[in-house]
Amino acid sequence: MKTNHILAILAIIGGLTAAFTRHAEHNDLYPGWTFRTERVDGEKIRYISASHTANLLYRKDQNIIIFDARQWDAYERYHIPQALLYDTGIGPKSRIKPGKIIVYGTEGSDNLQKLISELPGRVYVLKGGMEAWYAQVLFPDFNHYRIRNRDQLDHILRRSRFFGGEPQNTQVLNIQVRESRYREGC
Q: Measuring CA to CA, which residue among 142, 140, 122 is closest to residue 131?
């Protein structure tokens, strides 16, 4: 009985250590973070991962507004589904419904910084912009990411195809589910 308590405490300590040391980032696991706050030029910026943004859209979350702060020609070539092209003449900002507001564009551009400061409420910036969207959502390359289990792989494949993408290098995946190692009964 005492051994079980010690093992449980060690498991909790190991889990907390993995969470605070960014285990997934250091071991090339598929991005698992959702939100992150960083200081850039003395300002606090809230970031959201491309993977989490895709999950919100995939689940058809209604409380999400996405603004594209890029130029018209880039927006016309491809944009994240449901994304609205940001226009400085958008009208009164009070008409924007509360919810998650996500913006993306060229990192460090004046248009993106202006958009972040003008929008009301919590504004999240898509970390990595369209490059992250392509790399993690539309065309995830499994030479660069490791996947933890078959369920996560199936979700990534379905989600990628849902948005019109095609996962890359899926033949290198060798995921084996260890169902026989689970104990049955007490």
A: 140
- Say how many C-beta atoms besides its own lie within 10 A of residue 168's C-beta: 16
Quote the CA–CA distance of 103 and 105 in Å, as a whole number. Answer: 7
- Tokens 């990595």 sit on residue: 128
Specify the pLDDT at position 180.
47
Looking at the chain, how many residues does it have?
186
Q: Please state, in angstroms and rounded to a whole number, the distance separating the CA atoms of residues 164 and 84.
A: 19
Residue 27 corresponds to which tokens in the numbers above?
Answer: 């071991």
What tokens were used for 131?
């490059």
Three-state SS for 139?
Answer: coil
Of the candidates 109, 113, 123, 99, the residue with the CA atom closest to the CA atom of residue 46: 123
Q: State pLDDT tens for residues 114-146.
A: 777 778 778 899 988 889 898 888 888 877 777
- Among 133, 143, 145, smallest CA distance to 172 is for 143
Q: Tell me the whole-structure pTM to 2 decimals.
A: 0.70
